Amino acid sequence: MSTFQAPKGTYDLTPPRSATFLAVREAISAPLRDSGYGYIETPGFENVELFARGVGESTDIVTKEMYTLTTKGGDQLALRPEGTASVLRAALEANLHKAGNLPVKLWYSGSYYRYERPQAGRYRHFSQVGAEAIGTEDPALDAELIILADQAYRSLGLRQFRILLNSLGDKECRPVYREALQTFLRDLDLDEETRRRIEINPLRVLDDKRADVQKQLTDVPKLRDYLCDACKAYHEEVRALITAAGVAFEDDEKLVRGLDYYTRTTFEFVHDGLGSQSAVGGGGRYDGLSEMIGGPELPSVGWALGVDRTVLALEAEGVELDLPATTSVYAVPLGEEARRVLFGVVTELRRAGVAADFAFGGRGLKGAMKSANRSGARYTLVAGERDLAEGVVQLKDMESGEQTAVPLTEAAAELAKRLG
Ligand code: HAM
Fold this sequence. Notes:
By secondary structure, the protein is an alpha+beta fold. The protein has two domains: 17-173 and 227-317, 2-Layer Sandwich (BirA Bifunctional Protein, domain 2), CATH 3.30.930; 329-418, 3-Layer(aba) Sandwich (Rossmann fold), CATH 3.40.50.800.
């Protein structure tokens, strides 16, 4: 193992690609910030118990993928595998739900950890931007979140994504379906592990990717036929609101999701250019999660979009984000005296709000101009001994190539003016 190698299943974000990640986080969170969602940040780790109870004892995430650790003080912690349980925990702890302002709308952005088998688009450390709307049962809230995710992806220029939508029923109708499903599944020809799954988490069997399993599921009872009237009406209203907003979706009754807390609305954003890890984001309603972690009844809904996979989706579609150059002015001093003087001009420019950089290390003109080019700066300032003797600096417009001598004392103001 080389010392300079990131751990298995992880990778570093370095310039210039890292700029795209920042832009994606910004694009996903912008519609949320404009829609009343406040920013929340929670610790990177929590008590194991929170995820065991929240995400579900029988899920792959909890049984196989959680990074757990025991602290020197004996606490059992886990690196967070997802954000929803943490955000709800934090909202309850801060009593946000008691401020008389429901729903509590929150957004977050951060790192998550799952001990998965690494492959393209599946990492052990990944980033999500997420949103949770806590404490209100209203189909318009489910619709709002789906519409905002769609808006975020469109603002990035993504087009080849699809929205899959389903309802998982509630605590009235889901148990009835679960039993009917178990009765059906127990009669099939399945391996030991899948048989165990029938008893603890039968809905996950529907999600089995193997063809021989799927073949046996042709006549499986459909959740749709078991939804109670309230769930049906709720789902129809969500569908109607999204449709009215002009957001296309596909009904997918096989969509069950990998976390146990979902009730009623569930959805996933999939991108067709990503191969097997096609889910770029997902979410749904979790009306029972608060009680599962010991809180009051707080019907809620949310989603998380994967930043890593969204960047892969952009690359798959060949979308180049229009990222403005971070540097507007690049200063190239020739000689000791010029270094001092131009460094002063750069400081002045920065204080005036102009993004400026400097050729450090006393490099020659050629190398420094290469750096100026690479920085994407619109203007370079060059000064040597003769310029300083005349009290000027050379201002070069990198787009037109035009160069003019500007009085040193006016250089910063002139640049600020030209850059608007
Ligand atoms: P999730 O579907 O497990 O949902 O994750 C959401 C997104 O995170 C995925 O669609 C994917 O883009 C990204 N993701 C998950 N695992 C990995 C991985 N190993 N490598 C790269 N990207 C990954 C949740 O986490 C729920 N908390 C979403 C939610 C919020 N539901 C309600 N509120």
